[in-house]
Each structure stands twice: as structure tokens, then as C-alpha cells.
């Protein structure tokens, strides 16, 4: 039967052979050209394409919706709102990214390359702010530095201070207040990635530079910093995109960016304006990604044949100063917030905030976040593998699409998912798996960044060797590449877990009725400024997220 | 060897979590299906009494934009009394967006909202359905939709919350218009213009003053306010802590602040109460029936249930709001609705002017102003 | 019919750019070892990678045992070609032990045979005792042998070696050249080796393909390649040489150059008058009654011989510098006058490029 059909097919194709042949030939030539003569494994390509498709759901949604915005609406927004929002958003993103990168790189350098007392313990102590959601950070700093905060109380009791400054000089509800809070709770992105790179850095490069007569200081600028460039770029992207998409801390500290404007517009059911603003936000994201990519030089593969761990630098008389900086950062970004949370939690617990429901929320959080982190590890693999080993327009497109969810506000991601899944794929609708999908859409790039960093350290020759030994690229991915980049992939998974624990807006909208997570509880309580009930949940988010972080850093 | 172990462990975890996920996902679906199957054949709407007699089962999906503490006890009571499993989603104003987005495949039966404007907005978009629940007459037609697809239950008055340590009731501005006065510069707080309560309030002001005067009010208040926030929670906290002298909020925020363990020396002023003045603006919280509700008969039942006087009372009491039904007693701290002068605009007109009001606020620049 | 056939292979990485490999033609017999020799960037590695399947030729055709490997429309993926490859940095899998590395290519073999075969090849390369070590625990030479064993294990139709000696020190390098040749011969492997060092090429291979700027310069056995370079690029690339222009004598056996008449090893069939000569330094023997003379400009001591830079006077009165070899016991000083003869066997007519 089949044979007959194919025979017939052959027959008909014979009749039209010239046309059919040339067309087929043309396609295959084009396809091969696209991949530089090396089309990748189709299974991988399919998985990656489907992933990219899911990742682009919010974008499709935004474009679809913004099509309904008449040109009049566009012009009006462009005229009146967008210039101001653009300035607000870009200045905040730029300042926070710059400061956080500086801080992250400096701290990574101190911890990994200097003889800091306490040594490697700082490695994870300084990564801890990662598990503190910035809105919780904002909440604690409002409690500490706010117009009637703890510091103000101290102020009131110290007349000499008043005599110097007259009025209480700190305004947390300001651009710089927000910059401070965001920097304090986002720098670990750079810190972690830069630390990982620093540890991998081969001493030979520095030795070579020293033999050329460079001082340690100029080696830092001329050798280490360029070496860290990919790590810094990756971290800076994470931070910039975070700032672009943050709502919690920004709204608590009363600032207005594209994302908060989108939230507010959605809050007054103006989804058209919200999607128009989202379109602009997407453009900004593209520009940010483009800037990073175009300033990055070609990826370098470091061969590990002659690896020597770098030498620790003796700090000498600088020790006190460096130690002071490290301690200050730790106190400001971890100790103080935790003290505030413990203080409010103790009030809350004494009022009976912890009951059986509370543990249910905790389990729910762990369940969804675990699901999201597992799947993002699996889905990130084909994406990064194709990107690194099969460079082409196509993989670049897939890569870019995968980033689209990251910069978009959670509420847009959530509405996009509702739009698609409620209309077309109703099987999953109303199940918490949808939340996990939203987390993947939002945080997959974190898993990708981390995996990519490890993958780029593995020479493509390793893959080629495996192929010449008769293995398909899919098999190689699992037998060779995956075991080698496992630490990076797992770290990415841990990062996704931590971020998911903190995620709020998508969780809020997508959870099935009756399904609450810890972050939802924080929102419910903090939204009404009931800090003593928000604090235990916040503290638990921090604790639960600390575990994977701790594990990830032990690797 | 080590990596293999890790991979194995991961696989195991993965399978476990996935199994758990599928399990609970399945059960959720099953419940829904059972609900659908067990659902009694749709009753005639008017046949309410008969419905009560029938043994009730299945579930009711409630989307609530209200603070969940105000709603949870009430929903629990409904579940206990009727045997209908209540599934509630509390997500603030975002639920309204969710209802709009779910339009093609409705998930929710009933919406509980804080703001008449948003319910009327949904109705005008064709997302609500009318009904004739028993006991609807107890609500003044001013406070319900033409087709009763939504109705208000409790009033939220727009009052000035003030810090008694910083200012006395006599010193406070006595009218809303006085907020434009230079002398209050940087001393009070308002929410941004896009806040649902604010939009409704501005609509009422337009009705009273006309567009020109309202725009002037908006522009001046925007410059005068010391801080503009997204929600009212921040205002009551800040005023209670003495950061600002007073702020414009819905009355129950005042009651909330009163119940705080500290920073609770606050008072509330009902503005515009003088002889020729317009009165205080009253918004309402209430419930709405979603079009195409999957458990429609249960939803109908809920509407009738909540209109029972004791439940109406509970609805308002939980939030310390004022019942719209004057026959129902008020909490001690709150004034009765008949005790003060209210603005004349019927709430069910809010939806029509809603877009125009928003445009006016946008023009004044208050829609996205936060400081 | 030959074992490996490469026909008209051209590789252009980007449209409009200069091709990396141009019109490459080669036929190999079974069991033969061939080297691709040339300076870096000459296209030799690209050619190798095209045979392995990691690059696809822009045009041309490759067959092994008459099976089509790739042409303009078709390209067999690398994993299906049955070609083993040894990489410059060995590319051993760092997370697998030596024996696991070797067994990696034996996935289609049965469990027991797999182990036996792996042990067999490790035995061949002399590393059976190191089977359970990890790559980072081995020295450079050992790593290289593991890489070789790994490539050989599945009995590939062809083994490709990309600069296999470049990461080894000189001593080890010499020993490995010898060992590699022994191992390949014993296993009757057909192999292609890419190198930029003519010593590697001469020591290991039966034939050498000299490449420059993407084009084949000459294909020949090592001996004739050295003695009869086809053009001046080949002559200069393979060791030191002196290039002189001259005019062919009517007897077709002598050439008139600036420094005098030089005898060729055989009669030439060259048609043109103007020719170029390549004279190897070791073809110049110092003799007190030598026909040519000049003054010593510089001496480099090389251990087994001395390299002497000599300035000769020409008839046109411009000086000609030549490098000649001298015995170590020859006591020469800068400024001395030396006399020498040129042996015809190390003189060749070359094409000017």
C-alpha cells in the first residue's frame, strides 16, 4: 500500500521533476546555507522551536492586543506619556545596572582573589540577597529609613543630629532610595556569575601579564576585567531586565517606570494602553540585548590543559577598608532586612500567624517552583546548545524570543498565558501547572545564562570528537555535554527556583482558586500594610530559597 | 560517577514532582467535571425557593477583588450552610482583567468587587448577565445595575483620614475643593488618578462641577499633594505615623488604622457636609454574576443567599463599611448612611462616564503620577 | 580504484571572500599515510575538517571506498562517516576515565567485545595500565596516545590527525612520530595528518601534500619532495634553500647563474630559458679546491653542523648571499674566504611563484 503510494508519488514527481527538483534543491541549499552547511539535529531544533514558541506567547499577546490600539491612541501615548516614562525607566535601569555591576564585580574580586578574613564563607553570605525579594527589601527599608522609620526615631532622640541637618535628610521615596534598594538586592546576579568566572580564570594569563611588567592593579583592568566581560554582560542583562520588569519595589517606593505604568493601566482595565506601553518595553529590551551582544567580543574558549588556580592577593593595609565594605554590604542587604522581618514575624507569630494553612502555602510554593526549575533546566539545554554550537540567524532568533518573557511585566506574561491557554489549550487551564509555565516563560533566560556560561568553556572540539566516534548530536548532548556543564545547569535551575519563589504578579493571576503560595501571602498582607502577617511568609520564602542557593554555591 | 548520581537523583525528583503535579492537576479537573455533572438542571431564575429546597452540591468559583479577610469568613459560612464548595481567587483588581481575558471560556461564577465602576464596566462589555434574585428589592435601585447583573451591598465613603496629633478636625479642609488651596501644599496624600475609587470619585465630581472645574481640581491637587500613592493602605499608614497630616481615603481604611496597635490616633472627616454643599461621595462594594458562569444555579443561589439580611450585615461588617440597605444596622464605629449627606450621582451611571472620566484624568496628568 | 577520492573540493566561508580551499584533488590508497603540510592558514585543517564532516565543501565531491561522503547536494553527517579523528588539543572527555574515553566510540559493540577492544587498543598505544585514570592525570604524550587509541578503537575507515604533535616537547615529539607511524602501520590504518612541521610530515607519511593559500603546491613522497621541489614555495617551505635565477644552457643540463655555471642532476625538459634554481645548503660541500668561493658573513652553530652565510661575488657585480652547511670540525671565522662545490643531486629547477 505504502509502496504503491510512494511509487505513484514518484511517478507524479517524475512528470514535474524539473520544477519539483529545482524547488527542493533550492530549499535545501538555502537551508544548508542558513546553517553554514551544518543543519542541527532535528529533534533538538524542534524542542527549541517549541520552547521559543511558548516563550513568545506574551509577545504574541502584546502584539495582538496593540493592533487594536488605533493610531490615535498610539500618538497620544507617544506624545504625553512615553517620553517621561522612557527617561524614568532608562535612567533607573542604567544607574542600577552600573552600580550593581560595579558592586558585584568588586565583591567577587575581594572574595575570590583576596585574602579576606572569613574566606569562602563570604561567597554565599554575599549571595544571600538574591533570595530576598526586592519588594520585601523595599518594605524593610521603608520600615528602617522611611519618613517615620526606625532611623527617624533615633533621629528624634539625638538633638545634635537635628542641629546639624535641621530636618530628617533621608527620603527613601526617591530615585536614589529606589536605586539603593534595587542595587542592594540585585547585585548578586553579577556577583555570582563573576565569582564563577574568576574561579575558572587561569593563572597563566596573569603570570604572563606580570612578566610583562604590569602591576596587579593594571592586570585587573587589562586582563581580569576583559576576561570577566562575558560574565559581566550576562549579569548586567539579568539586572537590567530585572529592573525593567520589577513592579513590587518600584511601586512601594513610589516611582514610575514602564512596568509600573503597565500595571496601573491594567489596574484601570485599560489593556490597550498597557499593551502599547508593553510594546515600547519590548523594544527597550531588544535594545538592551542588542547593546550587550554588540559590545561583546567573540566567545573565547579557554583550554584547561594547563590550568592553575590564581594566586590570592595579600590585602595588607587595605584589609580593614575592604573588610569594612564587605561587612557593610552584608549588613545592609541581609542582616538589616532579616532583623526587620524577624521583629515583625515575632509579633505575627505571637498573634497566631502560623497555622496549618501556612504550611500548605509553603508546599505549594515549593511544588510550583520545583516544577518550573526542573523544566527550565531541561528546556534551556537545547536552546543554549544550538546557540553555542550552531550559530545562525535561526538560533539567534530563538534565543532572542526566549528572552522576551523575561523583560515583560509578570502581569502581561500572565494575561498572555491566560489568553492562549484559555482559548486554545484548555486542558491545562485552571491547574497550577500554568503558574509553572509562567515561571518558565519569565525565568528561562536565567537558566540559559548560567548554562551558557559553562558551555562556552567547553571546546567545540569535544563535541566533534564525539561525533567522529559515531554519536548523534542528541546523544552527545546527554552523554558528554550535559555531564560537563551539569554544575552550570543546576545552578541555573537553582536560580530559577529562587526567582520563582519571589514571583508575584503571574502567580496571583494564574493560580487556581484556593491555591495560595507564600509570595501571594506576602502580597495580600503587605498590600494592606499588615507587616506582622507578611513578615513570616517573607522570612519563609527567604529560608526556602536559601537551600538551593546554598547547595548551588557548594558546588 | 558523581554526575551520574546527580542526574539520576534529578530524574527521580522530576518524575516525583511531575507525578504529583499530574495527580493534583487531574483531581482539580475531576472536581470540576464532577461539579459539572452533579450540577442540577438549570432552574428557572424566578424559582428561587424551590432551589433552596433541593440538596445542593458542586462548587462555586468566586473571583474577589476585595481584601480576602473581608470575604473569607462569609464564603466559609456559605459553604457550611449550603454544602457548595467555594473556590475563591483573591487577586485584587487583577481579577477584573482575568474575567475580561477569560471571556471566551468563562471560569468564574461570581465576582466580588470593591468598585461599582469596574462592575458596570464589565457589564457594558457584555461580560455579566442579568438576574432577578429574591431580596434584590432591599437594595436601592441607585446602587444596582439596570438588569441587576451587579448590585452593591455596602457603602465606601470618601473621607479625609487625619492624624490627631498634627491637626484638629476644625483646622482640616471642610470640603474636597479646599484641597486645591496652596496652604495645604505637601501636607496631604491622595491616590493616583487611575485608582478605581478615585476614578469613580472624579466621575461624581464631574457630575457636580462640570469638566472644567474638575480638571482644575485635578491639576491643582496633583501639584499640592505631598505624596501620591497607588493604593490607600500607604495613606492610612503614613498619616497614622505622622508623615502627613491627612489623606483622602475610603472610610474603612480609617477603621483599619484605628485597629492598629500603634500609630492609631487618627480621625475621619466627612467632607462637604455644609448647608449648600454637595455631600460625601459614596462608592459601593458588591457582587456580580458572570455571563456563562459554569455553575450558574449555584451562583444564583449565592446571590440570593447574600441578600439575606444577616449576610448583608456580615458583608459590610467584615470591612467596617456601611450597609447600603438602611434597614440593616451599622457597626458602632461607622456612621449610618442616612447620618451624612451623600452626593447625588447614581452609582449605576458610573460605567457610562467612566471612559470620559479617565480621559479627563489623563489630560490632567494624574493617571500615572506617583510621588 | 583508490580508497579515498577527493575531487575538485572548494570551500568558501563567506560569499565573495577568498576561498579557504581551492580545487583540492587527492586520491589515496588503502593503508597509506598522507600529510597535509603548509603554513598556518593555508587551508589544510579546513580540508581535514571537510573530510571529517565538520565543514561542508562549497563544491566538490568526496568518496571513500566508492561510497559517496559528500557532494554538492549531499553530506553524510560526521557520525556516519566512520572516520576517526585526533584533535590538536586531543579533546578527551574530561569526565570519563581513559578506558571509558576509548569505549565511547564502541557504543555499537557488545559489552564484552567493547571492553576487549578498548583494552586491545590501549595495549597498542601502551597505556593499558592507565585505563582507569582520568585525562587530567596524564601527561601530554599519554593524552595524545589516548586520543589516538580512542580514534582507532572503532576500526575507522580513515584516521585524521590534526597537528597531533604540536602540544608536545621536542624529545617526546620525536619519539611520538616514530611510535605513531609504528602504531598506524601495525593497525593497517589509512591516515591523514595535518602539520606545519615538515619533520612530522617526513617522518610519518608516505606522501605529502604541500599547501599554500588554499591551493595544492605539490604532492609527492618526502624524499622527492625535498630533492625536487616543484616551485620555490615548496623549496623554501621545506627547510633552508638558496634560490638563484639563471639561464638554461643549450645542453639542458647546466644553468648559467650570477655565480657561475651550475650542473643539474638530470637533463631537463624545460622549454624556457629563464629558470630558477633551488640549491640546498647541504648540497654545498666545502672543499679547498672548490669551484665557488665567497667570504663568510655569519655562522650559526647547529649541533651536528654549522650553517654558514656566504657572500659571493657575481659577474654583474652585485653580491649574492648563500647559506651552506659546513662540518662542525671546520674552523671558520667571520671574514674567512671559503671554497665549495655544489652537488648536482641537491640542485633542482623550480617554478617561480
Which key terms come to mind for this protein?
heterotrimer, B: 371 residues, alpha/beta, D-Maltodextrin-Binding Protein, domain 2, 2 domains, 12 helices, 10 strands, globular, C: 353 residues, alpha+beta, 6-stranded mixed β-sheet, 8 helices, 20 strands
How would you describe what is shown here?
The complex is a heterotrimer of chains A (555), B (371) and C (353). Chain A has 555 residues and is mainly α. Chain A folds into two domains: 40-74 and 351-555, Orthogonal Bundle (MetI-like fold), CATH 1.10.3720.10; 81-346, MetI-like fold, CATH 1.10.3720.10. Chain A has 26 helices and no strands. In chain A, helix 4 packs across helix 20 (410-423) and helix 18 (356-389) packs antiparallel against helix 23. Chain A starts with a helix and ends with a helix. Residues 4-14 of chain A have low confidence and may be disordered. Chain B is of the alpha/beta class and 371 residues long. Chain B has two domains: 59-155 and 283-331, D-Maltodextrin-Binding Protein, domain 2 (3-Layer(aba) Sandwich); 156-282 and 354-363, 3-Layer(aba) Sandwich (D-Maltodextrin-Binding Protein, domain 2). Chain B has twelve helices and ten strands. In chain B, strands 1, 2, 3, 4, 5, 6, 7, 8, 9 and 10 form a ten-stranded mixed sheet that branches. The longest helix of chain B has 37 residues, at 2-38. In chain B, 51% of the residues are buried. Chain C is an alpha+beta fold and 353 residues long. In chain C, strands 6-7-8-3-9-10 form a six-stranded mixed sheet, with helices on both faces. In chain C, helix 3 (111-124) packs across helix 4 (140-152). The chains are: A mainly alpha (555), B alpha/beta (371), C alpha+beta (353). Chains A and B meet through helix 15, helix 18, helix 20, helix 23 and helix 24 of A and helix 1, strand 1, strand 2, helix 4 and strand 6 of B.
Amino acid at each position: 500500500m505504502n509502496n504503491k503510494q510512494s511509487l505513484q508519488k514518484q511517478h507524479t514527481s517524475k512528470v514535474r521533476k524539473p520544477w519539483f527538483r529545482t524547488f527542493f534543491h533550492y530549499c535545501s541549499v538555502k537551508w544548508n546555507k542558513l546553517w553554514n552547511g551544518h543543519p542541527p539535529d532535528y529533534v533538538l531544533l524542534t524542542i527549541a522551536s517549541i520552547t521559543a514558541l511558548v516563550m513568545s506567547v506574551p509577545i504574541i499577546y502584546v502584539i495582538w492586543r496593540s493592533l487594536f490600539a488605533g493610531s490615535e491612541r498610539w500618538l497620544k501615548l507617544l506624545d504625553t506619556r512615553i517620553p517621561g516614562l522612557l527617561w524614568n525607566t532608562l535612567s533607573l535601569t542604567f544607574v542600577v545596572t552600573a552600580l550593581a555591576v560595579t558592586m558585584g564585580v568588586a565583591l567577587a574580586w575581594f572574595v575570590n582573589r583576596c585574602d579576606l578574613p572569613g574566606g569562602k564563607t563570604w561567597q554565599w553570605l554575599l549571595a544571600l540577597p538574591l533570595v530576598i525579594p526586592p519588594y520585601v527589601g523595599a518594605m524593610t527599608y521603608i520600615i528602617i529609613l522611611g519618613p517615620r522609620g526606625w532611623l527617624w526615631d533615633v533621629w528624634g532622640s539625638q538633638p545634635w543630629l537635628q542641629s546639624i541637618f535641621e530636618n530628617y535628610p533621608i527620603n527613601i521615596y526617591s530615585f536614589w532610595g529606589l536605586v539603593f534598594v534595587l542595587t542592594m538586592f540585585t547585585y548578586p546576579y553579577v556577583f555570582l556569575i563573576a565569582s564563577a568566572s574568576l574561579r575558572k580564570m587561569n593563572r597563566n594569563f596573569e603570570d604572563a601579564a606580570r612578566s610583562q611588567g604590569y602591576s596587579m592593579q593594571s592586570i585587573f583592568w587589562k586582563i581580569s576585567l576583559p576576561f570577566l566581560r562575558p560574565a559581566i554582560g550576562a549579569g548586567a542583562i539579568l539586572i537590567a531586565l530585572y529592573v525593567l520588569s520589577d513592579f513590587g519595589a518600584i511601586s512601594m517606593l513610589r516611582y514610575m517606570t514602564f512596568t509600573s505604568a503597565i500595571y496601573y493601566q491594567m489596574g484601570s482595565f485599560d489593556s490597550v494602553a498597557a499593551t502599547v506601553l508593553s510594546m515600547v518595553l519590548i523594544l527597550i529590551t531588544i535594545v538592551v540585548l542588542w547593546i550587550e551582544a554588540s559590545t561583546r567580543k567573540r566567545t573565547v574558549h579557554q583550554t584547561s590543559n594547563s590550568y592553575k588556580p590564581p594566586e590570592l592577593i595579600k590585602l595588607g593595609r587595605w584589609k580593614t577598608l575592604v573588610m569594612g565594605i564587605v561587612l557593610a554590604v552584608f549588613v545592609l542587604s541581609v542582616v538589616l532586612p532579616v532583623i526587620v522581618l524577624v521583629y515583625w514575624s515575632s509579633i505575627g507569630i505571637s498573634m497566631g500567624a502560623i497555622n496549618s494553612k501556612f504550611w500548605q502555602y509553603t508546599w505549594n510554593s515549593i511544588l510550583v517552583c520545583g516544577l518550573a526549575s526542573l523544566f527550565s533546566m531541561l528546556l534551556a539545554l537545547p536552546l543554549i546548545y544550538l546557540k553555542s554550537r550552531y550559530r545562525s540567524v535561526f538560533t539567534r532568533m530563538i534565543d532572542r524570543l526566549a528572552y522576551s518573557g523575561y523583560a515583560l511585566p509578570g502581569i502581561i506574561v500572565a494575561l498572555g498565558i491566560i489568553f492562549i491557554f484559555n482559548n486554545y489549550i484548555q486542558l491545562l487551564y485552571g491547574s497550577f501547572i500554568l503558574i509553572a509555565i509562567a515561571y518558565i516563560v519569565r525565568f528561562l533566560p536565567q537558566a540559559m545564562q548560567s548554562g551558557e556560561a559553562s558551555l562556552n568553556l567547553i571546546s567545540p572540539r569535544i563535541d566533534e570528537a564525539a561525533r567522529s566516534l559515531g554519536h548523534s548530536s542528541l546523544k552527545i548532548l546527554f552523554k558528554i555535554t550535559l555531564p560537563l556543564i551539569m554544575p552550570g545547569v543546576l545552578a541555573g535551575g537553582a536560580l530559577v527556583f529562587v526567582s520563582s519563589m519571589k514571583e508575584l504578579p503571574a502567580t496571583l493571576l494564574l493560580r487556581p482558586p484556593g491555591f495560595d503560595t507564600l509570595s501571594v501571602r506576602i502580597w495580600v498582607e503587605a498590600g494592606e500594610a499588615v507587616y506582622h502577617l507578611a513578615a513570616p511568609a517573607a522570612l519563609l520564602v527567604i529560608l526556602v530559597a536559601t537551600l538551593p542557593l546554598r547547595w548551588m554555591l557548594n558546588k | 560517577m558523581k554526575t551520574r548520581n546527580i542526574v539520576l537523583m534529578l530524574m527521580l525528583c522530576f518524575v516525583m514532582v511531575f507525578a504529583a503535579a499530574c495527580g493534583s492537576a487531574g483531581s482539580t479537573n475531576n472536581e470540576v467535571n464532577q461539579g459539572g455533572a452533579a450540577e442540577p438542571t438549570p432552574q428557572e431564575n424566578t424559582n428561587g425557593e424551590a432551589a433552596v429546597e433541593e440538596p445542593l452540591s458542586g462548587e462555586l468559583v468566586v473571583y474577589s477583588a476585595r481584601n480576602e479577610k473581608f470575604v473569607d469568613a462569609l464564603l466559609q459560612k456559605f459553604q457550611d450552610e449550603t454544602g457548595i464548595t467555594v473556590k475563591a481567587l483573591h487577586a485584587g483588581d487583577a481579577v477584573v482583567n482575568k474575567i475580561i481575558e477569560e471571556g471566551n471560556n468563562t471560569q468564574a461564577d461570581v465576582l466580588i468587587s470593591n468598585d461599582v465602576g469596574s462592575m458596570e464596566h464589565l457589564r457594558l462589555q457584555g461580560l455579566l448577565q442579568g438576574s432577578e434574585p429574591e431580596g434584590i428589592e432591599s437594595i436601592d435601585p441607585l446602587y444596582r445595575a439596570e438588569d441587576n447583573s451587579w448590585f452593591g451591598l455596602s457603602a465606601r465613603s470618601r473621607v479625609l483620614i487625619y492624624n490627631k496629633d498634627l491637626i484638629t478636625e476644625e483646622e482640616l479642609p471642610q470640603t474636597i475643593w479646599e484641597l486645591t488651596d496652596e496652604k495645604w501644599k505637601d501636607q496631604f496624600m491622595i491616590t493616583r488618578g487611575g485608582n478605581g475609587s478615585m476614578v469613580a470619585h472624579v466621575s461624581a465630581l464631574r457630575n457636580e462641577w462640570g469638566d472644567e472645574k474638575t480638571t482644575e481640581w485635578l491639576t491643582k491637587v496633583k501639584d499640592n499633594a505631598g505624596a501620591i500613592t497607588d493604593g490607600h493602605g500607604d495613606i492610612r499608614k503614613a498619616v497614622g505615623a505622622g508623615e502627613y497630616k491627612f489623606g483622602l481615603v475610603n472610610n474603612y481604611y480609617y477603621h483599619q488604622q484605628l485597629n492598629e496597635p500603634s500609630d492609631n490616633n487618627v480621625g475621619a472627616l466627612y467632607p462637604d457636609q455644609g448647608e449648600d454643599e454637595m455631600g460625601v461621595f459614596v462608592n459601593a462594594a458588591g457582587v456580580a454574576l458572570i455571563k456563562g458562569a459554569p455553575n450558574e444555579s449555584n451562583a444564583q443561589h449565592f446571590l440570593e443567599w447574600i441578600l439575606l439580611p444577616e449576610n448583608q450585615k456580615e458583608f459590610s461588617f467584615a470591612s467596617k463599611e456601611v450597609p447600603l440597605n438602611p434597614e440593616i444596622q451599622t457597626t458602632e464605629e461607622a456612621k449610618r448612611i442616612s447620618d451624612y449627606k451623600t452626593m447625588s450621582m447614581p452609582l449605576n451611571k458610573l460605567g457610562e462616564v467612566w471612559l470620559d472620566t479617565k480621559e479627563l484624568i489623563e489630560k490632567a496628568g494624574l493617571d500615572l503620577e506617583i510621588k | 580504484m583508490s580508497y579515498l577520492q577527493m575531487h575538485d573540493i572548494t570551500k568558501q566561508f563567506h560569499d565573495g571572500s577568498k576561498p579557504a580551499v581551492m580545487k583540492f584533488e587527492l586520491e589515496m590508497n588503502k593503508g597509506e599515510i598522507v600529510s597535509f603540510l603548509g603554513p598556518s592558514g593555508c587551508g589544510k585543517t579546513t580540508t581535514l575538517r571537510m573530510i571529517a564532516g565538520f565543514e561542508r565543501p562549497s563544491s566538490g565531491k568526496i568518496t571513500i571506498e566508492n561510497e559517496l561522503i559528500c557532494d554538492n547536494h549531499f553530506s553524510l553527517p560526521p557520525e556516519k562517516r566512520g572516520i576517526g579523528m585526533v584533535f590538536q588539543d586531543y579533546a578527551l572527555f574530561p569526565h570519563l576515565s581513559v578506558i571509558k574515553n576509548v569505549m565511547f566510540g564502541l557504543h555499537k559493540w557488545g559489552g564484552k567485545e567493547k571492553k576487549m577492544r578498548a583494552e586491545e587498543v590501549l595495549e597498542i598505544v601502551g597505556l593499558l595500565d592507565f585505563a582507569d585514570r582520568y585525562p587530567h592525570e596524564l601527561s601530554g604524550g599519554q593524552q595524545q596516545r589516548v586520543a589516538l587509541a580512542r580514534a582507532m578503537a572503532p576500526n575507522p575507515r580513515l584516521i585524521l590527525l590534526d597537528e597531533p604533535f604540536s602540544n608536545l616537547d621536542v624529545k617526546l615529539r620525536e619519539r611520538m612520530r616514530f611510535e605513531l607511524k609504528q602504531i598506524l602501520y601495525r593497525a593497517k590504518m589509512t591516515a591523514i595528518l595535518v602539520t606545519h612541521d615538515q619533520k612530522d610530515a617526513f617522518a610519518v607519511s608516505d606522501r605529502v601534500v604541500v599547501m599554500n593559500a588554499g591551493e595544492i603546491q605539490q604532492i609527492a613522497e618526502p624524499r622527492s619532495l625535498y630533492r625536487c621541489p616543484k616551485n620555490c614555495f615548496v623549496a623554501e617551505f621545506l627547510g633552508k634553500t638558496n634560490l638563484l635565477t639563471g639561464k638554461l644552457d643549450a645542453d639542458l643540463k647546466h644553468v648559467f647563474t650570477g655565480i657561475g655555471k651550475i650542473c643539474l642532476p638530470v637533463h631537463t625538459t624545460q622549454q624556457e630559458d629563464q629558470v630558477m634554481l633551488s640549491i640546498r645548503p647541504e648540497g654545498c660541500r666545502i672543499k679547498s679546491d672548490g669551484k665557488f668561493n665567497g667570504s663568510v658573513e655569519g655562522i650559526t652553530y647547529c649541533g651536528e653542523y654549522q650553517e654558514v652565510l656566504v657572500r659571493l661575488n657575481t659577474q654583474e657585480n652585485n653580491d649574492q648571499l648563500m647559506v651552506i652547511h659546513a662540518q662542525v670540525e671546520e674552523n671558520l671565522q667571520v671574514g674567512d674566504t671559503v671554497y665549495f662545490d655544489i652537488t648536482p643531486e641537491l640542485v633542482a629547477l623550480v617554478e617561480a611563484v
